[in-house]
Design brief:
Layout lengths: L3 E6 L4 H15 L3 E8 L9 H19 L3 E7 L9 H15 L3 E5 L6 H13 L10 E5 L20 E4 L4 H10 L13 H13 L6 E9 L2
Parallel strand pairs: 1-2, 1-4, 2-3, 4-5
Antiparallel strand pairs: 5-7, 6-7
Helix pairs in contact: 1-5, 2-5, 3-4
């Protein structure tokens, strides 16, 4: 049975960093993929802000083609300041896409990430997916984003321990290509957002369950 998949992320590149291999696997299975991005990921960066937004949008579109994301909803809430936006506005932004896309599976940030935008995005997503009668969402999972999830440790809440591992051995190359599209957001090793570190994380996650590469997820809710 095909699924309707929704990714709710704070910034363009979070979707590739967190679940790029999983999304490519969904696409290969014939599932439909939509993505909500809450901010432009740029913030106030001086006179080059508009050019930076355009560059990031091009990277987003290139990554989407690689991963099989068919629909984007781009919002321009203030970057690194989602705590300044009323939660209702964030919830309504997610609800609008749920109404049109009717997702059965949702992926979003971990509740206790260091980045405030990630935490607010999780809260908005969980609120928008309240388990009411007739709601389409049957499964919600949180993903980890290198340099946002592990840097929080357990100081903001329980540390991220995945309870679901997705075999991305066949789609890890897609994840790497999508991250190459976001090359200006990547960093040199030993930074956790380097391709070396991301490969190492995927290897550890995979080897823990006997496959070459995997992505770790934390179950928020599943209705079977």
């Amino acid at each position: 049975m095909t699924e309707s998949v929704l990714i709710v992320a704070a910034h363009a590149d979070d979707e590739a960093l967190g679940v790029g291999g999983t999304l490519a696997r969904h696409a290969a299975a014939g599932d439909s993929l939509a993505c909500v991005l809450m901010t432009d990921g740029v913030g106030a960066r001086g006179d080059d802000r508009d050019a930076e937004i355009t560059r990031r949008q091009h990277a987003r579109d290139d990554a989407a083609k690689i991963l099989g994301i068919q629909q984007f909803e781009q919002h321009n809430f203030p970057d690194n300041q989602l705590d300044s936006v009323p939660l209702l506005q964030l919830v309504q932004a997610v609800e609008a896409v749920i109404a049109t896309h009717q997702p059965t599976v949702v992926y979003t940030h971990y509740a206790h990430d260091l980045n405030i935008d990630h935490r607010r995005t999780f809260q908005a997503t969980l609120t928008a997916c309240r388990p009411q009668a007739g709601h389409p969402v049957r499964a919600i999972y949180s993903f980890e984003v290198p340099s946002a999830t592990e840097w929080a440790g357990d100081h903001l809440g329980p540390g991220f321990i995945p309870d679901t591992l997705v075999d991305i051995s066949e789609t890890f190359a897609h994840k790497r290509k999508a991250l190459a599209a976001y090359h200006e957001e990547m960093r040199a090793a030993p930074h956790p957002r380097s391709i070396e570190s991301i490969t190492a994380l995927a290897t550890v996650r995979g080897h823990s369950v006997g496959v070459r590469y995997a992505e770790g997820l934390k179950t928020v809710r599943v209705l079977r």
